[in-house]
Every structure is written in structure tokens, then in C-alpha cells.
Write a structure and sequence with these properties.
This protein is an alpha+beta fold. It has helices at 32-36, 66-75, 83-92, 95-103, 107-110, 118-128, 151-161, 166-180, 186-197, and strands spanning 4-12, 16-21, 24-30, 44-53, 58-63. The chain starts with a strand and ends with a helix.
Length: 199
């Protein structure tokens, strides 16, 4: 199996790129975030690779970081999430943002990806809850924890509706919950999160 490719960028398309490794061109599917960070044609590229072998094809998926590759692996364990859908999700949510969205049951953020409806987003959040701990980056925002009534998820959804990015919303709600305690209502969490994010 191919685990890593190091070569020169030979071309890009909407959902893939060609990496020239000593004269051999490898077609690699990648997220929009990864493709956007590769640089121009002829740039030196190193990609972590996930190889998928099917009866009719061998497909390579490329990632700039191991965290993105590991997120891809977890996503594809969910029924209904193939390589293309997993890349669509990673095109709108980085590994840390995805980890936060899943931990907070923020299905609205997951459903922003092409090909992901509310039911699939809910399945992803349910099946992968608790599995992203080792993947979230060290610089990620603290996760809101301890509230089992769904108030945290409701507060995150409300902040997303106000235009907050998932990471910013998660950070603001975590700070609000740390100050107010686990018994805080949705309204209290939202008001405190807005107050803290305005500082």
C-alpha cells in the first residue's frame, strides 16, 4: 500500500491532483483545503496517502497532515460515507473543527458539506462521538462538556446562526459554560458566550 508520496505537483482539478514522483504521475483525490494549500505547478509536495482498493479501481486520497488522514479514516467507517463524501466534509471542516462539531453534536456544521444531509450528519455525529479525542489538534478550543440536556448543542447552533465559525462558537460556549456551570440554560449560555466573544 502507498502511505506517502513525495514529488512535484504536475496538475490540479476540482477534486484531485497529479503528483509526479520520479516521472510517474499519481492521481490523488484530496479535499479543497488540501488542494488549496499545495502551491503552484512544479511545487514540491509531500502528501500522506490513504489507499482504497476496490474490485474495479485503486484510489489514492491525499492529505497534508496525519490528523486530516485520520479524520478521513474515521469518517469512512460510517455507513453512507465513502471517500468522496469524507473529502467533501474535510473541505468545509478541518480536523479540529470536525472534532468539535462531533463532540458538540453540531450536525448543522457537518451538513454544510456537499452530499451530506441532516440524517447523514446526525449519523456521523452519533457514531463518531468520543472517537476524535486523539485527532483534535493541541491548539483547538476547549470542548463544552458536562451538559447532558442538549443545551450546549442548542447554544452552538444559535451562534452558528449568528455567523460564528464552528471553532469560535465552540470556544465561546466552552468559556460560558465554565463560568456559569453545568446547570446553565440555553439563553444564559448564549448571552454569556456573546459577552465573552465581544471582549
Amino acid at each position: 500500500m502507498i502511505a506517502r508520496l513525495k514529488g512535484l505537483l504536475d496538475g490540479t482539478a476540482a477534486e484531485s491532483c497529479i503528483i509526479d514522483v520520479n516521472g510517474v504521475g499519481y492521481l490523488v483525490s484530496a479535499s479543497a483545503k488540501t488542494l488549496g494549500a499545495l502551491g503552484g505547478i512544479g511545487s514540491a509536495v509531500v502528501l500522506h496517502i490513504e489507499t482504497q482498493v476496490r474490485e474495479d479501481a485503486i484510489q489514492l486520497f491525499g492529505f497534508l497532515s496525519e490528523a486530516e488522514r485520520d479524520s478521513f479514516r474515521l469518517l469512512t467507517t460510517v455507513q453512507g460515507v465513502g471517500g468522496r463524501v469524507a473529502l467533501a466534509i474535510l473541505s468545509v471542516l478541518g480536523p479540529d473543527e470536525l472534532a468539535h462539531a462531533i463532540a458538540a453534536a453540531d450536525t448543522a456544521s457537518i451538513a454544510r458539506a456537499n452530499g451530506v444531509g441532516p440524517k447523514l450528519a446526525a449519523r456521523i455525529a452519533n457514531e463518531l462521538k468520543g472517537k476524535f479525542g486523539a485527532i483534535a489538534l493541541g491548539s483547538a478550543a476547549p470542548l463544552p462538556v458536562g451538559n447532558t440536556r442538549g443545551d450546549v448543542a442548542d447554544a452552538l447552533t444559535a451562534l452558528a446562526g449568528l455567523g460564528f465559525r464552528p471553532m469560535d462558537a465552540s470556544r465561546a460556549v466552552a468559556d460560558a459554560q465554565a463560568e456559569l456551570g453545568d446547570g446553565a440554560s440555553v439563553g444564559e449560555l448564549i448571552r454569556m458566550a456573546l459577552k465573552k466573544s465581544a471582549r
